[in-house]
Amino acid sequence: MAPEPESAGPPDEPIRVLVSGDLDLHTYRPRDLPDLLPAWFEECRARGILTVRVIHGKGSGSLRMGVHALLPRLAGHVASWTHPAAGAAGGWGATLVRLNP
User: Fold this and answer.
1) Span 26-85, pLDDT tens digits
2) Which of 1, 15, 22, 58 is the most buried (most CB within 10 A)?
3) Where are the domains of the chain?
4) pTM of the model
């Protein structure tokens, strides 16, 4: 599920987005991941969301490989991760991440 705007303020203000435990990467590129994942994990941790589902899709595997290459380097945020996710959680198209409190 893609983040949904919480509110639309004046055009010069940033749009606030609803933070949930699901991050759908389908609209992102692998080069976006080093900035995106730590920021998303930090915001989830600040809100008490400690289990995150990173949806990278099954496609070419470039997003999945990018996520999996980055997770070990984010030990300050990430306690553990599992791939593939359970079938109902996305199977091969998703990685479940447990965040440090």
Assistant:
1) 999 999 999 999 999 999 999 999 999 999 999 999 999 999 999 999 999 999 999 999
2) 22
3) 19-99
4) 0.82
Nearest to 98 by CA among 76, 73, 81, 75: 81
Tokens of 18: 């609803």
Task: Provide the CATH topology of domain 19-99.
Answer: Ribosomal Protein S8; Chain: A, domain 1 (3.30.1370)
Alpha carbon 5 to chain centroid, angstroms: 17
Tokens of 74: 């984010």
Structure tokens at 1: 């599920």
- Give which of 20, 37, 41 is closest to 100, Cα–Cα: 41
